[in-house]
Amino acid sequence: MVKAVRGAISLDSNSERELTLCVDKLYKDLMRLNRLKATDLVSIIFSQTQDITFNPAKALRLSNNLNDTPLFCTQEAVCEDFTQPRMLRILMTYNSENDTKPIPVYLGDARLLRTDISSDSNV
Question: Which CATH number characterizes residue 87's domain?
Fold first, then answer.
């Protein structure tokens, strides 16, 4: 069965190095907590705020050798009622044979996005 899990992380700065570190951390935490292998992945979608000017899919592909997983990036919609700077979100779809509930990961200031499910105990 195909499942999906969400996550997000805030960047301290808009730099390629910071993006690569944050993408790698978010990806590895999601993989570890959900007990996934790269072969389980169906696809990954990233969304990022306008103030991130580097490509998270490229960063993840290079740092984790994900050449067989479709990766896609998009820019977050600008909303007047909520602005959180340098925010990167992820939606990971994967194949799973078990009934376990996906465990989302929200790191740094991204915890403010989902205070109802964010917890330091997840990571």
Answer: 3.30.1330.40
Domain count, the chain: 1
Whose tokens are 């997840």? That residue is 122
Close Cβ partners of 80 (under 8 Å, ≥ 6 residues apart): none
Residue 42 CA to its chain's centroid (Å) = 14
Cβ pair 47, 76 in contact under 8 A: yes
Owning domain of residue 13: 2-114
Which H or E run contains 36? none
- Quick check: 110 and 48 in contact, CB under 8 A? no
Beta-carbon contacts of residue 100 (< 8 Å; ≥ 6 apart): 34, 35
**Range list of β-strands (E), 49-113:** 71-75, 87-95, 105-107
pLDDT in tens, 29-86: 999 999 999 999 999 999 999 999 999 999 999 988 888 999 999 998 887 766 688 9
Does residue 122 form part of some domain? no
Residue 84 in any domain: the answer is yes
The residue to which tokens 């959900």 are assigned: 34
